[in-house]
């Protein structure tokens, strides 16, 4: 198993969701313009290492924050699997919704 971080999105609507994702850093400009689709009545797990803004991606080991906006209401959960130690650790948190 490989350590990874994911945005887990649940779309309970009858309409496909179009997500717009921005990655923010402490010491550099954000990565913007990333788009993902979550089909109606489905879930999608998007590994943050797979996100691209043109040729740029999230540098390994660099702290970041994420915003996810959608054209329809969705449920967003952030998960991290750490396999760097014999005792695996899984952390998961719900996103902070903005009205």
Please tell me how large the radius of gyration is. Answer: 14 Å
Number of helices, counting only DSSP H or I runs of 4 residues or more = 0
Query: How far do the termini sit from each other?
Result: 37 Å
Shape: globular
The percent range for helix content is: under 10%
Unreliable stretches? none
Number of strands: 7
Kindly estimate the percentage of residues that lie in beta strands according to DSSP.
Answer: over 45%
Order of helices and strands: EEEEEEE
Helix-strand category: mainly beta
Lateral arrangement of strands in the main beta sheet: 4-1-6-7
Largest sheet: 4 strands, antiparallel
Q: Averaged pLDDT, please?
A: 88
Task: Give a brief description.
With 99 residues, this protein is an all-beta fold. The chain is 0% helix and 51% strand. It has a four-stranded antiparallel β-sheet, with no helix packed on it. A three-stranded antiparallel β-sheet has the order 3-2-5, with no helix packed on it.
Characterise this structure.
- The chain is mainly beta and 99 residues long.
- It has no helices and 7 strands.
- It has strands spanning 4-11, 17-24, 31-38, 42-47, 65-70, 75-82, 89-94.
- The strands form 2 sheets. A 4-stranded antiparallel beta sheet has the order 4-1-6-7, with no helix packed on it.
- 12% of the residues are buried.
- The model has no long low-confidence stretch (mean pLDDT 88).
